[in-house]
Predict the 3D structure of the following.
Amino acid sequence: MFAAGEAFGLVFGSVGLLFAAFGIVMIVFMVRKASEHRRTLREGLVAEARCLETFVVHHRSAEGGGHSQRRLILGFRTSEGRDVRAEIASDVSYVVGDIVPVRYLPERPERAVPAETSPGLGVGSYLAGGVLVLFTCVGLFFAATGFGLSAFMDGPADDGGTTPDSGEYWTTEP
């Protein structure tokens, strides 16, 4: 009976740790992407890219709503003379043939960003980060609860001491 409770606690704790690990990995991923974006805008080289193609990606939700995102495929030449194509999201509507100023890092020109992009994070990024922090905390709570249950459900309490039925009693007198 107690072994099943202990196993349940271990499984519960392990699942909680998996949730927490997933949340931490996603937070690190988001922070790295935001850091790279800010670094590109701050230190990136400027180039004039030509809009080669535009298209709209529709994201639909289960409730029937959704949103659309304008995507551009840009072509430009780096300062080293390398021809690069980059796919970016843009709030500004460009047409094929328009010149779009971009910034890029020399080691990753295919991750260019439009030069008019604001360096700050949007509300959506903060909301996603908050949800991931909450997700991680809930996972850690479940891990602590599960491992705590398994630690305290380790079997009947038998400390090897005497029982009242054995006839041996502790006394306080010498």
Notes: The longest strand covers residues 45-60. The radius of gyration is 29 Å. The chain has a mean pLDDT of 83.
